[in-house]
């Protein structure tokens, strides 16, 4: 018995020591592929020329077909389905894939918001009489179309927190992920969400705040950073909603950060291991 306890203590000590000496792991997730042509270009740019390791695709979005074509040409990119129940931009809209009246606004689009927003009174999904069975129907349709077009998809995530409407929706989303054998993170994969540490109004501020975040990553832990690449071009300047008007500048800053040589230098110097959701499933 004493020998067993001694061996157990040694094993635990070795495990702790390994965790303390192992490099931090980081997933850099580029969200919302499909929201615009420039967004598609920027997201793939951050993968090809930068540090993005996983890409999230919005299936009912207007530029989904182009996103599929682009990702077909890059079979090594780790892709996730970004399940969506909202259409937040004022100048460009998208609709459910299914006949689900409780998920549509008066014009047939998704509601602009998931949760109540003072700028869009009464126009969030949460404020309307949504039906659980219709959300499940829509989620299934999005998952199945994504898998049909991009069979290698490894995981599922949720745009604007749409799976958090209530505990029933959360449980259903987890059940679907399991049914379709898709990872559901970050909690189920043991990841810790991290974010900018400091101002992020300009590209320079974003880069500095991102580097500060990198310097605080814990050894032996898996971290998840999420943001939305874009380009400061006329197309993206026309995309906005009340309360988020500087979309083009903001998302250009994300692209600049994810492709920054300074960021790469810090990642190399700290020995940070860039991984994807797919890596965690292997």
Task: Give a written overview of the molecule.
With 282 residues, the chain is of the alpha/beta class. It has a single domain, classed as Alpha-Beta Barrel (TIM Barrel). 41% of the residues lie in helices and 13% in strands. It is built from 10 helices and 8 strands. Strands 1, 2, 3, 4, 5, 6, 7 and 8 form an 8-stranded parallel beta sheet that branches. β6 (192-194), α6 (203-215) and β7 form a beta-alpha-beta unit. α2 (37-48) packs parallel to α8 and α4 (132-149) packs parallel to α5. The two termini are 36 Å apart. Residues 2-19 have low confidence and may be disordered.
Write a concise synopsis of the structure shown.
The protein is globular.
List the uncertain runs: 2-19
What is the domain total for the residues?
1
Percent helix: 40-55%
End-to-end distance, in Å? 36 Å
Give the CATH class.
Alpha Beta
* CATH architecture label: Alpha-Beta Barrel
CATH superfamily: Glycoside hydrolase/deacetylase
The outline comes out as globular
Radius of gyration: 20 Å
Strand content: 5-15%
Number of strands: 8
- Which topology does CATH recognise? TIM Barrel
- What kind of assembly state do the chains in view correspond to? single chain
């Amino acid at each position: 018995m004493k020998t067993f306890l001694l061996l157990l203590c040694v094993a635990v000590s070795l495990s702790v020591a390994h965790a303390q000496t192992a490099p931090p792991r980081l997933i850099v997730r580029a969200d919302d592929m499909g929201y615009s042509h420039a967004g598609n270009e920027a997201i793939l740019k951050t993968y090809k020329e930068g540090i993005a390791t996983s890409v999230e695709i919005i299936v009912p979005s207007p530029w989904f077909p182009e996103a599929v074509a682009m990702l077909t040409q890059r079979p090594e990119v780790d892709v996730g389905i970004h399940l969506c129940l909202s259409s937040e931009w004022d100048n460009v809209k998208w609709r459910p894939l299914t006949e689900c009246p409780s998920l549509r606004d008066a014009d047939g689009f998704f509601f602009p918001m998931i949760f109540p927003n003072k700028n869009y009174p009464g126009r969030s999904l949460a404020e309307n009489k949504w039906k659980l069975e219709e959300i499940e129907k829509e989620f299934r349709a999005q998952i199945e179309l994504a898998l049909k077009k991009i069979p290698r998809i490894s995981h599922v995530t949720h745009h604007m927190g749409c799976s958090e409407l209530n505990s029933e929706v959360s449980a259903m989303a987890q059940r679907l992920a399991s049914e379709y054998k898709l990872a559901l993170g970050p909690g189920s994969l043991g990841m810790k969400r991290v974010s900018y540490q400091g101002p992020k109004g300009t590209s320079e501020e974003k880069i500095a705040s991102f580097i500060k975040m990198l310097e605080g990553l814990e050894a032996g832990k898996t971290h998840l950073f999420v943001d939305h690449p874009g380009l400061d071009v006329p197309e993206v300047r026309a995309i906005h909603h009340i309360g988020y008007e500087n979309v083009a500048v903001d998302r250009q800053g994300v692209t600049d950060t994810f492709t920054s040589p300074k960021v790469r230098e810090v990642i190399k110097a700290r020995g940070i291991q860039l991984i994807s959701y797919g890596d965690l499933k292997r």
